[in-house]
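Quick one:
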Amino acid sequence: MKSKVLAVAVGAALVAAPAQAAVTYAFESGVFAFDYVSPGYVTGPLLVDLTGNASCVAEGVTCEARFHPDEVASPFADTLAFKISYSGGGSSTGFYYFPTGAFSTPGAYEDVITDGGVVIFRSTLTVSGQPDPGVGPGGAVPEPATWALMIGGLGLAGAALRRRGANPGARQPA
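Output:
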């Protein structure tokens, strides 16, 4: 009985502290701004509904961001498209280009447009944080606490079967 209580207590302690990692994408262009939190790096095309986030505060306005890592929208850059759709019709979209790999590498990146050497527009994308270890290119991988619970559960099942077999009063099959 003590081993059963100990196994449950150890399993509960391991489950109590799951990993809470995340990657934050903070974008600012002087016209549009938003923050997006993802469990992992954006490695493929991604559409994010941003309604109610930062620049999308006007009534009847919907906002979205489309992340296009390199080789999807442009073979030379990670591309971010920010779109605002107005309730009365019409929309506005801006395209921003960052170095290849920016969506999957922490750091601050700029997209600068110049005219005759003079900066006329500047946007910034800051990628920070770490991806959740369970989110990766190969799919989800159980956390150590999950493995501990699975192994503990199998151990408890084995102990119950063993105890049942050792009981002298147990009925034997004919």
